[in-house]
Amino acid sequence: MSTTLTLKTAAQLRATYLRGEMLPSIFCDGCGLGNVLNYTLWALEQLGTDLDRTVFVSGIGCSSRLSGYVNADGMHTTHGRALSFASGIKAANPDLTVIVFTGDGDGVGIGGNHFLHAIRRNMDLTVILVNNFTYGMTGGQAAPTTPVGSFSTTTPYGNIEHPLDICELAKAIGAPYIARWPVSYPYQPIKSIAQGISKRGFSLIEMLVPCHTAYGRRNGLKDLEVIWQWYRDHVVLLDDYDHITQFGSPEEQAALREKIKIGVFQDVERECFDERWAALVERVKL
Amino acid sequence: MHTILIDERWCKGCKLCAVNCPPKALHMAERFTKRGIHPPELALNGRCNGCRLCELLCPDFAITVTEEAGVHL
Fold first, then answer.
1. Is B66 left (phi over 0), alpha (psi -120 to 50) or beta?
2. Contact A186 B16 (CB under 8 A)
3. A106 within 8 A of A60, measured Cβ to Cβ
4. Secondary structure (3-state) at B41
């Protein structure tokens, strides 16, 4: 058998994976959320995953609408509880591939506690966390990830709270696979999502998605081209970050403070919940 | 020769494809679609190198790049 990738056209991909009657999507024009779904579909295509054995779970928010567009079983759950529902699905039926779409407000704001404990248990989930720095669907309130000094409906004089670095948090608790990519880079997220799905254990792929309607409008990034360019200018690859901290000039190091690290943060093996559960059942059975 | 097919039911006219096209082969058409937006179209047929970046970056799944021969005028 040849190992070359059979390249489908985008039209074939859409016909296989999407619910045509649900589209066009509800997202604002130029929102990167559609891209996140597009990259996920290409990753599934690359892996040859059976859609009948895949479950898409999501909470509440813009990003959580994504599960409705895929022609697979899915759950649209309560606010912040996507990971709890997904953990339940995985615990009940470990053969299923469970993919969770969640946002920054949904995943680490409202459902922050579930996020910690899903990683602690190391459930075999693939979490695609869409970070747009705001609560977009409810009108642009400040989220846990809103950068310092940003304006939102709840911080009209600028945000004074420090933002949460989701990838560093996940790394501290010990998630086996963590990556962060902006949505303007297509190939790296596809590869990361594919790696995350194949990984046994909790894999977190944080996607930086521009929200020009709720976040950009209040922060001088209203124009679509401007906000997409902002993301290109304000990210730095992990390797470059390390290189600049070690050898860079003081100016380069000062510029780093404004930038968001992107790349694969962690890729290790760690025993997941299903394996430990199976071992326990084997040990205590009569 | 590459052709670009636009699904006009789904396209929202966000211009991301035209902005991010490396050889600047796409531009926004003058005409309107049924949704009332300007759809992108291939301005310079020979200039498209088939990189499929527009297909990947389209948030609304509206673009397909095919390698079939285009219509020669």
1. beta
2. no
3. yes
4. strand
The residue ranges of every structural domain in chain B are: 3-66
Q: Which residue of chain B is at minimal alpha-carbon distance from A42?
A: B56
How many Cα atoms occupy the beta-carbon half-sphere of B23 within 13 Å? Answer: 12
- Chain B residue at shortest CA distance from A209: B59
Mutate to test the interface with B, among A23, A42, A46, A230 (most CBs of B within 10 A): A23
Choose among A9, A11, A30: nearest Cβ to B16.
A30
What residue type is assigned to position B36 of the chain? Answer: G
User: Do residues A125 and A98 touch, judged by C-beta distance below 8 A?
Assistant: yes
Select the residue of B19, B52, B60 nearest A24 (Cβ to Cβ): B60
Please state, in angstroms and rounded to a whole number, the distance separating the CA atoms of residues A192 and B54: 20
CB atoms within 10 A of CB A87: 23
Do A36 and A43 form a contact (C-beta atoms < 8 A)? no
The model's pLDDT over A48-87, given as tens digits with 9 standing for 90+, comes to: 888 899 999 999 988 888 888 999 999 999 998 999 999 9
User: What was the ipTM of the complex prediction?
Assistant: 0.87
DSSP symbol at A18: B
Element (H, E) at B6: strand B3-6
- What was the pLDDT predicted at A198? 92
The predicted-structure confidence for A107-156, as pLDDT tens digits, reads as follows 898 988 999 999 999 999 999 999 989 998 888 899 999 999 999 999 99
What are the structural domains, with CATH classification, of chain A?
Answer: 28-229+261-284 (3.40.50.970)
Q: Find the closest chain B residue to A24 by CA distance.
A: B10
Residues B60, B39: contact at Cβ < 8 Å? Answer: no
For the structural domain made of B3-66, what CATH number should be given?
Answer: 3.30.70.20
Nearest chain B CA: its distance from A28 CA (Å): 9
Measure CB to CB from residue A34 to each of B13, B55, B61 and give the nearest one: B61
Q: Global pTM?
A: 0.89
Q: Closest-CA residue in chain B for A15?
A: B61
- Amino acid at site B47: R
Separation CA A175–CA A269 (nearest Å): 9
User: Residue A83 and residue A280: Cα distance in Å, rounded?
Assistant: 23
Count how many pairs of residues, chain A against chain B, have C-beta atoms within 8 Å.
Answer: 66
